[in-house]
Amino acid sequence: MSALACIMPEGRWTEAERRHLTCLQPAKELYGQLCFKNPGIRNQALPAEVMESVFRDRFATWHGIASVLYLIECLLGVLLVWLQGRNPG
Q1: SS3 sequence, 48-64?
Q2: What is the Cβ-side half-sphere exposure of residue 32, based on CA atoms within 13 angstroms?
Q3: 16-74 pLDDT, tens digit each
Q4: Could you tell me which of 26, 21, 23 has the C-alpha nearest to residue 4?
Q5: What is the phi-psi region of residue 3: left when phi exceeds 0, alpha when psi lies from -120 to 50, beta otherwise?
Q6: Confidence of residue 87 (pLDDT cuts 50, 70, 90)
Q7: Which terminus of the chain is more solvent-facing, meaning fewer CB atoms within 10 Å of its CB: N or C?
């Protein structure tokens, strides 16, 4: 069962939506391999210079703001897909 199945039952996906989700599967698997199976890559990607500087607090604040805005954007995208599924046409 996919994570999106809780939002929209399997029978209600259009063919275009199924193709789109299928295209995203390799990217999801690659992300999982890079981030979770090889933690060294993740540690190398951390902004060490910034985190050791006087701008640490500013960076953390803006990173938090950007993360919240990205979450809102993602939730709005899911809402739009769900609303489009309810009103085809």
Answers
A1: HHHHCCCCHHHHHHHHH
A2: 6
A3: 776 666 777 777 777 666 666 666 766 676 667 766 788 888 888 999 999 999 999 99
A4: 21
A5: alpha
A6: confident
A7: C
The residue type of 68 is V
Q: What tokens does 13 get? A: 């996906």
Enter the pTM of the model: 0.44
Q: What are the domain boundaries of the chain?
A: 1-46, 50-89
- Burial (Cβ within 10 Å: 0-12, 13-18, ≥19) of residue 27: exposed
Provide φ and ψ at 47, rounded to 5°. Answer: -80, 75
Query: What is residue 5's DSSP assignment?
Result: G
Cα–Cα distance for residue pair 52/5, rounded to 1 Å: 42
pLDDT at 1: 41
